[in-house]
Specification:
Shape: globular
Structural class: alpha/beta
Strand content: 5-15%
Helix content: 25-40%
Distance between the termini: 9 Å
Largest sheet: 6 strands, mixed
Oligomer: single chain
Strand order of the largest sheet: 11-16-15-14-12-13
Amino acid sequence: MIEARRLRRYGRVLAAATGLALLAGACASTPAPPPPIPPAPLDLPDEVWVHNTLADMSLEERVGQMLMLRVQGGFENYRGPAMKEIERLVDEALVGGFVVGIGSPLDIAVKLNQLQERSRLPLVFGADLEWGAGMRLWRPTYLPYGMQSAGGTAFPFNMGIGATGDPHMAELAGRITAREARAVGIHWVFAPVVDINTDPANPIVNVRSYGSEPIAVGRFAAAFIRGAAAGGVLTTAKHFPGHGDTHVDSHVEMPVIDASLDTISMRELHPFRAAIAAGVSSIMLGHIAVPALTDGEVVPATLAPQIGSELLRGRLGFTGLVVTDAMTMGALRDIPGYSPGELAVRAVEAGADVVLSPPDPILAHRALVSAVRSGRIHYTRVDSSVARILRAKAKLGLHRDRMVAIDSVPHIIGAPEHLTVAADIAERSLTLVRDSSGVLPLDPRRIRSIAVVAFSAPGDIRAGATLAAELRNIYGRDVTFLRVDENTSQAVHDSAVAAAARADAVIFATFLMPISGQGHLTVPPGAAALAGRLNSSSSRMLVVAFGDPYGPATLPGSGTYLLAWQPRGDASQLAAARAIAGRIPINGQLPIVLPGTSVSSAIERPALNGRLEFASPRDVGMDAFVIDRVDSIIQDGIVEGASPGAAVAIGRYGRLVMLRAYGDLDRRRGFAAVTDSSIYDLASVTKVVATTTALMMLMDEGLLSLDDPVSQHIPEWGGSPAKERVTLRNLVLHNSGLAAYGPLWKELQGREQYRRRIARMSLEYEPGTKTVYSDFGIILLGLIIEQVSGYPLDELLHE
């Protein structure tokens, strides 16, 4: 009898053999570079333009393509000093593009057209449009009158889109954002943020993240990428390798992520793998130190070849653009002895194709040119980056037409159909964390007066105005509105408390959001004290958070706590007012876990009922990067159409190291996404786990050989020369000549009847000439195993 320990050994051999076969494809040799291409006109295919342009560029021009500088979006006179300085950088640093700041849509479009005319090669313009074009195509407020102009479409922050539970909302946001960006000449969207916000004290990620669950973040990020790509822009997954597990803002100082290699692989890297599978154009390196990835050294990912080259390019197989975060950020100021030029050189050595916003562009340009001429950076390293940049520009069509039509801008930016989608997403995102006193809805038939107190940053002078205006439309004129901030006088606080005492209900609305360089995201003590006074003065109070969901969750009066996710724009305030009045439902699901509350994400991994516990790969003696490889194979298979989705569980010694879901249950629109609880009909598992393993054991014992003729073990099998040539190998490879299918169950019953019928079947094709998946061959193989071993298959394997 075969020993049980051999079964375990063969299982390991089978797993190892499968892994080697899968890895073989990843290790295929790189093809030789193409031969030089002769000069060609611009109307030939994009790749020809890329090769010709690269061949015609000086070293200085090539290095310039790797630099992106910052340009403000506001109005500038063409002959004014600010515009002249920008044009000087175009001329001297020969830059490849610009990062665009805040401005009105028309001002931005006119300015970018002017810069395109100035540059010999087409420029690429990028912008942080994480929550829509409204993030940069601003809605200016004209003081002292308080009039507000129109601007780009603003969506709820990513966390709000995650609260809808529907990745299609992210796809719509991506598509509309792209359309409005291209209308003004912006081609590269520095979004989506794919950081997983696992630290409630994170002052800079927060609502910019889709949530705290890796699978959900990956699904929403991939959907945004698909939508934005369909709209014609480049996309960016940021901030690699993950900025969510820290309470330090990299705009101020360098965060250090202390997570283990296994945790990073299983958690932080998952959304980046999903983004790569979705075809993301670029990945942004963060100014984040991750010692587990750099052999214990505390160095930002921007300057670490182990992260930008070895992990991102090598292990994750990313072939798109690698871009740094802005090189002016505070995290890099903590590194002694690095000049702006040296930082640029180090970033390129670490794998960056594009250096974003170097503090001294001319010095950065000179340092990179010198590094190439001295041999420190090989010229082919620069050429590979420049070729990727030029390909991206060609994909955008900039080599054919780099200008935008100014007269089309008012037809596209903030279009009614765009605003309708934004309003729909805002309504779907509303999330009621708790209503312990049954305050909601505030019935307009019983509630006649409301006090609205909005707490915001000092400069956010319009915070809460739209909320109060819509409440007046619903409840009438008796809606008192006050905006306060941390600098507001005590007299204003007293007025708010007096208004609360007179009102039937009080709404304390917080407008807090992550701000670059602020370094913290907390509810100031004065705001908490005011909330306490308001709560004491009213029998009916609720807290509505527009933005940060964590801090306001613990305010006095937050027994009724509503999340509306967007402190800028009108859509979320209008939705919140209507939900408070009961005019629209509140269906959002928390995409995070809020400390101090029993409510958690509705899309979290389900409980395992105590049967299995999770472990890191290292804990059970597995390689985390092999798990990454499994993940990549599945993602690639979905992208290539092998399957619309999959659910995967990997475990060892009774502990799970991977439980993930991918894609959808069906390719057709309207079908649900796969979850890690989706049940698939895996009818053929027995063939791999049982029959094949048992065959291997018997072969090792010398009782069977793959070259044994089937007729040697099944005498009824003969009857033709072709059937006499069929071996066990043909049965395993599904090329025996047997038919793919036959409904034998309709007329046969019992093992012997099946054996005789299959053995006497005629072959449908010459054995070994093609592959036809057939159950009949595996059934025969199982019968042979039982005959040779003397045991039924299930008893054999159980033993």
